[in-house]
Design a protein that fits this description.
724 residues; globular; alpha+beta
Length: 724
């Protein structure tokens, strides 16, 4: 693993922001060309219009299955009044100056369900400006006032009967200076956004197999590499014997790199056979040798006070109200402890990358999720400025956070190997499923304790909360967003309406070190905080003898959480909350806010041979303006199944520091036959769009647990519900 980015190296990010990254649409045979600048056309960095009137929207965000390209294109098309059938999407080059994500600190990257929210104003301005340029061009050509010119479906027209297509006017429009503050549409006048017409633009290519992923990249004289990683995290190469590996037909060379031993060959199969033939001795002096059970016990001891934090690790308050000491006193209505295991991202496409290195020049071709970080970490290896690193971003088969980390782990591996190969010869690094399952990054192991006292009506009077987990942000570069406390560990608990409605709150976080690499996982902190908050509330409602929906309504009113109340009411209505269920079935409810959106779910659950079976899930979401309703529904369906898979089966365990799971035979995931029917209802809103890719994931676990509570009378304090 690469060392953390230093403060000096962080200054290089400024060079990227100031000078721009470099990528032109190079063909595989093109030479590396450092020094070229990203070309910006007459309509700005986000729009290109061809002589035939076709509109290309340049997306700064990667498409890895979430469907954001359709929504981003629709924003432009709406303000431009383009013909939706003539709109296509193209991936932007790596250039943080032009394509930085304001919700990710100005770096270029896709994460935190920020693609649509971070682009909303930006793309509306771009589309409206381009429209104004066409209007002005038409007005000049026809000698009429610009105010009398209209645009619809890519056609510019005047009441006199004169009209012209974008293609016919594009040359004149390109000569018009774009307005700095173009007039935006009233959202009530939208004709495309919010309609079923906004559908994916990449479905045909994916259906026909013509979509180009990293594994599809074929370059002249390209080599394929695989890496032998240590069986324990933190171990390094002590020595290796490559004699047998070099005898494998097709193996070209074997190299030691910082993360292991790389075998370079003429094919993937030869690289794998060569790697299997390696003999490596590992130095485990600094390796993590504890198992997950021992780590969890340490977390429990720290939370209970049986053990004390070591070194600079201290308890940090993330929510405090009233007399904190009072939260430890009185008669508790509920004391509970919750445990959450490590989780793998388990993307359909494991990690891979293509790198071409010649001297200090580097070009990368792969599904880059965070171009700025990948440029920075590549630049450190080849000895160049980040802005000089070319990245061609391809679609990727999922990420859920895995493809974005501070070290650019698999990317750095590929660059190290390509540097050793040298001479500008392309190298494709391939990770197997087993590589990613055993040598990747994981959702952290987490332990919560909650102690609540209640008032005379059964509502929380004091709330004491402790969270113990590893910090995802520990290795963040200096100046990265976050502050003194790792909010990725407490988001969803911090600011919860339940805590706002509680007079006395004492909530603290502890982030002890452990040698297991951890990373954000779809919905990040909400993966565990939503469960703890929602399952706790259901238990309190049960103890108070109140209906769980009514109990939540009272707390939301007290906290002024009107959006929570609205989604709860909608989900309860559509699910028929309170009406009879078929024999053996019951309902559970949960509500959670993450990434600016609020989601409520009602899950219908029964037990089959002691295993939860989820049949119907009714989802209500407030995500601001719904740009692509069908895509929102798809994300709720996918997020629900992803979250349900983790709650029911997901678990990465370690024995003596080694990961036990290797593939889907031991890392159980939801099967097609086990997927519930998911209904999605969207709360009408005039607010700017908020996140959709992740908010559907954390709610299903507690909704199911709350249904099980009704069925069995027993709370569920640990995930997964079903042990492998």
């Amino acid at each position: 693993m690469n060392k953390p980015v230093t403060r000096r190296e962080t200054l290089a990010i400024g060079a990227t922001l100031a000078g721009g990254a470099l990528l032109v649409g190079c063909s595989p045979a093109d030479m590396l060309s450092v020094g070229a600048s990203t070309k910006v056309g007459a309509f700005g960095p986000f729009i290109r219009i061809a002589p035939d009137g076709a509109v290309t929207v340049i997306s700064k965000h990667i498409e890895f299955g979430q469907g954001n390209h359709a929504g981003l294109a629709a924003i432009v098309a709406e303000e431009l009044d383009a013909d939706w059938d003539k709109v296509r999407v193209e991936q932007a080059p790596a250039n943080a100056k032009l394509y930085g994500n304001k919700l990710m600190g100005g770096t270029q990257g896709t994460g935190g369900s920020s693609a649509i929210p971070s682009s909303w104003d930006q793309l509306r301005q771009a589309g409206a400006a381009a429209r104004a340029m066409f209007v002005e061009a038409a007005a000049k050509r026809w000698g009429v006032p610009a105010g009398e010119v209209t645009v619809a479906n890519g056609v510019v027209a005047h009441a006199s009967g004169k009209q012209a297509s974008f293609g016919e006017l594009v040359e004149d429009a390109a000569k018009i200076a774009p307005p700095q503050a173009p007039k935006l549409k009233d959202t009530k006048a939208f004709t495309l956004i919010g309609t079923p017409r906004v559908r994916r633009k990449d479905s045909l290519a994916k259906s026909t197999g013509t979509a180009r992923y990293t594994q599809d990249v074929r370059l002249p004289d390209m080599l394929t590499a695989m890496v032998a990683h240590p069986p324990r995290f933190g171990a390094t190469v002590k020595s290796f014997d490559a004699a047998a590996a070099r005898k494998v037909p097709g193996v070209v060379e074997v190299y030691k790199i910082p993360t292991g031993v790389a075998v370079v060959a003429n094919s993937t199969w030869a690289a794998k056979q060569g790697r299997d033939a390696l003999k490596v001795e590992w130095d485990e002096a600094k390796a993590e040798k504890r198992g997950s059970a021992a780590l969890l016990q340490q977390f429990k001891d720290l939370a209970s006070g049986k053990a004390q934090p070591e070194g600079k690790v201290k308890w940090q308050a993330f929510e405090s109200r009233g007399d904190a000491g009072a939260a430890a006193g009185g008669t508790a209505a509920l004391e509970a402890a919750y445990d959450f295991p490590y989780l793998a991202h388990a993307t359909m496409e494991p990690m891979n990358c293509v790198a071409i290195v010649k001297g200090n020049q580097a070009r990368l071709i792969f599904g880059s999720q965070t171009q700025t970080l990948d440029q920075l970490n590549t630049a450190k290896i080849v000895g160049n400025l980040p802005g000089a690193i070319q990245i061609e971003t391809l679609p990727a088969g999922g990420s859920f956070g895995r493809r974005a980390n501070f070290q650019s782990d698999y990317v750095a591996e590929c660059v190290h190997i390509a540097k050793k190969v040298g001479k500008g010869r392309p190298v494709k690094l391939v990770w197997t499923r087993e590589d990613d399952m055993r040598a990747g990054y994981y959702r952290p192991l987490v332990h919560h304790t909650v102690r609540v006292t209640v008032d005379a009506d059964g509502y929380p009077a004091t709330w004491r909360h402790r969270i113990v987990t590893q910090s995802i942000m520990k290795d963040a570069p200096p100046g990265a967003p976050g502050g003194k406390i790792d909010m990725t560990a407490v988001e969803g608990a911090a600011g919860s309406p339940y805590l706002k409605a509680t007079p006395v709150v004492d909530a603290q976080l502890l982030t002890p070190d452990a040698g297991v690499p951890v990373l954000w996982w779809r919905s990040v902190g909400a993966t565990h905080t939503a469960y703890v908050m929602e399952h706790t509330i259901d238990q309190l409602a049960r103890r108070a003898g109140k209906d769980p929906v009514e109990y939540r309504r009272a707390l939301y009113r007290k906290a002024g959480a009107n959006r929570h109340l609205a989604v709860l009411d909608l989900a309860a209505e559509k699910a028929g909350w309170g009406s009879p269920t078929p024999a053996g079935w019951t309902r559970g409810v949960a509500v959670h806010e993450s990434f600016g959106s609020v989601v409520a779910q009602v899950a219908e659950v029964k037990l089959e041979n002691g295993v939860p079976r989820v049949g119907r899930v009714v989802t209500a979401i407030d995500c601001g303006i719904a740009i692509a309703p069908d895509q929102i529904a798809a994300q709720m369906e996918g997020g629900t199944c992803y979250g349900l898979s983790a709650a029911l089966f997901g678990e990465i365990t370690l024995t003596d520091g080694q990961v036990d799971q290797a593939n889907f035979d031991t890392y159980r995931v939801l099967r097609n036959s086990e997927a519930p029917t998911v209904e999605t209802y969207i709360v009408p809103s005039a607010n700017p769009p908020s996140g959709v890719g992740e908010p559907g994931t954390p709610v299903i676990g507690p909704a199911v647990a709350n249904a099980l509570l009704t069925l069995t009378g027993q709370p569920t304090y640990a995930q997964p519900f079903v042990k492998a």
